[in-house]
Amino acid sequence: MIRPLRHLHRCQAVVLGVILPVTFVLGIAARKSAPTLTNLPPALAALSPAPGGAVGERDHLFTKAPVSVRLWHQQNNPNLYSVSFSAPADFIKPDLMVYWIPGSSGFVKNLPTNAVLLGAFGPQALPLSDDIASGRGELVLYSLADGEIVDTSQPIRLDQVSPSSSIQ
Fold it and tell me: What residues make up the domain containing 145?
């Protein structure tokens, strides 16, 4: 009983030893290439404005770290604004997102329901809608990975910035 089973298992091992590598090579050769995208679709390209002239900069808007906030006029429309951020490498948290909270809410433990997502923290310009640029509120840095608010800015109003002054 053992000898016939050994013979069967030997034949199976030889067949699998030949078929598996051939199947693997054929599978790799037959797979489709990864799709690439050379240009953004027009709907997404409109969401990433090219900053025009710098309007102002403020370094001490947040209390926990020296986060630098820059306000820009959009290149195609000087009445529209965008904002960008920079900070030292030791401050950057995983998946750091920027939110806008209208009004002056003081200390916030969790994101309120009226918080508006501006985008990911970084040097890229984040577009601001008219109600955000003309209203008073606070910027909130929120870490998605940690699920917590990292820092909250002082109350600010972005549209009252003159080209020669810093963010008010």
Answer: 51-160
